[in-house]
Amino acid sequence: MRHRFIPVLTCYFTLTVLSGCGHAPAVDSAPTLASRAADHAITMVGKPYRYGGNTPKGFDCSGLVQYSYGRVGVKLPHGTRNLLQISRPVSRNKLQRGDLVFFTQEGKKSSHVALYLGNSRFVHSPSSGKNVYVAGLNEPYWQRHFTEARRLEID
Length: 155
Description:
- The chain has 155 residues and is of the alpha+beta class.
- It has one domain (30-152): Alpha-Beta Complex (endopeptidase fold (from Nostoc punctiforme)), CATH 3.90.1720.10.
- The chain has helices spanning 2-19, 33-42, 61-70, 80-85, 140-145; strands at residues 54-55, 58-59, 87-90, 100-105, 108-118, 121-124, 133-136, 146-152.
- A hairpin with an 8-residue loop joins strand 6 (121-124) and strand 7.
- Helix 2 crosses helix 3.
- It is globular, with a radius of gyration of 21 Å.
């Protein structure tokens, strides 16, 4: 009987020490709207690109952003220029899940937008003939074309 008590006591002691005298630490674990929007965007991986599209039937880059934020109750305009106007710059090393990352495409500065996922990864709808997919900021192509990171003031 004594050997059963020791593991329980050890477990209780470990939990007490790790959680601060038996109480769970105060942590705000509720995900932000931006993080939840990123969650929605990632569920669209594999959906087709469609110029002007903002539904699961097909997305262009800003349509994916618009749709994903719309799923969490945030109404955003369509188009990279419009998204640039309603967001504020953030340094690349301060990126948070759900932030917007912009790239130069076809010689047009900040003409492509994606949702940042964390760990230098982002989800986007790339171009005609392709599907929504996850890519890395550190991949040579995206590193070369990265122009800026921006944050929406919504939370």
